[in-house]
Write the structure tokens for this entry.
Amino acid sequence: MKTIFEQNRDKTRVLLVGKELSKLFFHVLDFHGKEVDKISENESERKGSDFLVFCSDNPQQTEDFLPNIVFLEADFAILETSTLLENITGGGVLVYSENSYSISKKLETSTNYFRKLAFQELAFEKHGENATIATEIGTLPLSFSDDRLIRNLDGLRLLCQQFGIMEEEYYEAVLAYDA
């Protein structure tokens, strides 16, 4: 049986660790007409795209995926990151929270070469079911107030940039998101 990597060798393989964040991520991609193939532990959707996104909360299940791009949510507790970091293809990209001390320490000893994009957890204020966030383009109103989602917005922005979606386009889609 072929591994996920062997079946998708010619695609840009993206590992999104934080399945709860995938709904917003796919909303942004759909909003801007970016089609991707999607897989998770229990489902698959193939559109013939150049990108394959694997959503998981357990990166150990993705060892044979060999991602080009990895997104680790801010709350992700790394136990065995050495394998994950070594499985990123050379020249790939890692998007991670700058507040994650455990990831930063593992990156110091990683022998694999890839770009490291650290994101900040955005300052926000809750207003009942809604929230506002402070960004470089100003204060933006959100139609949701989920702490976990908001803490990862800047990281998802960096991830979306890998798909050619720039900051203003990203926030335009986020403002239209209905959690």
